[in-house]
Each structure stands twice: as structure tokens, then as C-alpha cells.
Amino acid sequence: MSSSTHILIAVLALGALFLIVRLVRLKALKAKYSILWLTVGTALAVISAVPQILDWTAEKLDIWYQPTLFLLLAIGFLLLLAMHFSYELSRMENRIRILVEEISLLKEKLEKDD
Amino acid sequence: METAAIIPAFNEAESLPNVISEIKGLFPDHLIIVVDDGSTDGTADIAKEFGCVCLSMPFNLGIGGALRLGFRYCMDRGIDCAYQFDADGQHDPTQISSLLSELEHSDMAVGSRFATDCSYEVGQSRKAAMNFLRFLVRIYTGQRFTDTSSGFRAFRKPVIKLFAKEYPVEYMDSVEALLIASKNGFKISEIPVKMRERSAGQPSNRNFRLIYYFLRLLIVLLASTHKKKKD
Questions:
Q1: Can you give the pLDDT at residue B207?
Q2: How confident is the model at residue B134 (pLDDT cuts 50, 70, 90)?
Q3: Which of A113, B31, B114, B122 has the fewest C-beta atoms under 10 angstroms from its C-beta?
Q4: CA-atom Rg of chain B in angstroms
């Protein structure tokens, strides 16, 4: 990896870490999601500090062009994340539905008592 | 024995008064539950005006969600028998008694438009869709239904309990409900009923969305692994 990409990744990683910590402190990001993103930020920071890790792993996996490994990992991670969000969404939708039912039943009870 | 009518209504203020008064005239002892599915045209006010139980949902959840709420209310109240009835005036209240008497020897009764020739006209694409659904349901339940999407149905207490928790909430709920009831070992029977033209409101089917709903239903079918054969 060239030194300019190196610096770029380092800056991005530091920026991401900073943003995550800030969001958690502002309570805009739930702790459970922050762990995930902090891990990603740290991984990015490590890779930018020691790019040899990426080169070495790529070589072991017979990947000739090292950034491919990075992109592969990134896409894989994002796919998993998107799936996780779909799962969370389904769960939330279900819960909202049950809440709507409860509210409607309670409202009816209230109006009847008046 | 307490019997209830569940009427899911989304912006049906125009046709609802007629539907309610017809049921009341024929069956004064039935409890009428109107589930207002987030209407903006005063559907809820009409239901209250007529002295019905009115369950108002804060926003539109679709007919499946509305029905599930109706079942839940019936379960909480210990209703013995319930039937679902359309708010758009499509169903004929004089057919209710034959639907209910069918419950004497089954857990769930479905009123079919097509079991005999009752001259109910449907469009070409709807017809194809209905044929396909019939085929799917037949494979899955081992039972032949002529009208899988009929919304004119009656249920006994155990089915009400099941549907209070598990009634499908997406479009084509009626087909999925048949599958769920069958999977849980309930006896479902179908009887021919006469139906009317819609007195007001728009038909809920939109052709361009049909493909999506079919795909979804297919996935639901594939996902339910414990397929139960009829004895």
C-alpha cells in the first residue's frame, strides 16, 4: 500500500473512532451498536498503522492484489450488518403491532368507563 | 352463547351505517365490534353512534392487523363464536345464520362465493390469481377450497384464541389464515354464500402488487416446515 493511502485510511479510522465515541457520549447511539462500530474503527486503525497485516494475510490466502482482501472483508461485514438490521426491524415491527393492539384495547376500556 | 361480529373498517363511513343496522336488525343479541383501522373519515364516530364496540387503531395496520385486534378483544371477553364481516356492504347479513350453524360441526366456517354458481364476477388477473391460490392451499392443507380469499368467515373459541396471537398481518391474510388454522389441526368447512357488489369503497387488490404478495406467500409456505397432513 502506498503511503498516501496509508495516511488516508489512518485519518478515516481516527475520524470514525472520534465520531463513534461522540455519538455514544451524546447517547445518540446505543451501547450495543457502539461496540460493533468501535471494533470496526479499531480494526481500521490497526490496519492503517500496520498495513503489513493485510499484506501478509492476503499472501497466505493467495490474493495477489491486497486491497481486494480489504474490500471483501468490508462487503462481507456490511452484508451481515444489513441482515442484522432486517432482523431487528422485523422484531420492532412485531412489537409495535402488539403495542398498537394494547393501546386500542386500553382506549376502548377508558372510553367505556367514562 | 355469546356471538360477536368483527368488522374491520378503513374509511368506510359511507357504507358502515347500513351494514351495522342490517346486522342489528337480524341479530340483536350479537356483539358488534368495529375495528377502525386508522380511518380519517369518522368511521369510529359512526361505530360509537350505533353503540358498537369500537377499537380504534392509531394508524393503519391493514386488514390483518385489524382482524387480529378483533380476535384479541373476543378472546379477552370470552366470546364463544365470532364471525368476520366486511364493512363495505359486500357480505349479505342474511347468510350469517347459515355460516354460524356450520360451526356446529367444524371449528371454522368459510363462506364461498364460488361453491355454487352465484354469479360473482371477477376480472381476468384476479381469476388467475385465485386459481393459483386455490391450488397452493389444496397442496398444503389437503383440502379443496373454492374461495381462499373470502372474508366472510366464522370461528369457534379455540380458533379465536389461535388467531388472537397468530393471525397473519400482511396482505392475503385470509389465505394464510386458512393455512395456519389447518396446520393447527382445526376442522375448516366451506359453505356457499351469496355476496353483493361493493356498495362503496375501493377493492383492495392492486394488480401490480400481486406478484410481490405471491412471492411473500410462497416464502411463508416454504418457511412453515411442519406440514400437517389431513387424516
A1: 60
A2: confident
A3: A113
A4: 17
Taking a C-beta distance cutoff of 8 angstroms, is the pair A69, A58 a contact? yes
Average of per-residue pLDDT across B201-214: 64
How far is the C-alpha of B33 from the C-alpha of B21, rounded, in Å?
13
Contact B74, A105 (CB under 8 A): no
Please tell me the predicted confidence (pLDDT) of residue B146. 87
User: What pLDDT shows up at residue B162?
Assistant: 95
The pTM of the full predicted model, rounded to 2 decimals, is 0.79
- Residues making up chain B, counted from first to last: 231
- Considering only CA atoms, which of A110, A92, A109, A94 is closest in space to residue B65? A94
Is A97 touching B (CB cutoff 8 A)? yes
Chain B closest CA to A85's CA: distance in Å?
19
Distance CA B68, CA B49 (A): 23
pLDDT score for B230 = 42
Crossing angle for the helix pair B207-223 and B124-141, to the nearest 10 degrees? 10
Mutate to test the interface with B, among A86, A95, A100, A104 (most CBs of B within 10 A): A104
Confidence check: pLDDT of A78 > 50: yes
Contact predicate B39/B26, CB 8 Å: no
CA distance B102 to A88: 42
- The helix (H) or strand (E) run that includes residue B201 is none
Residues of B in contact with A101 (CB under 8 A): 65, 68-69, 72
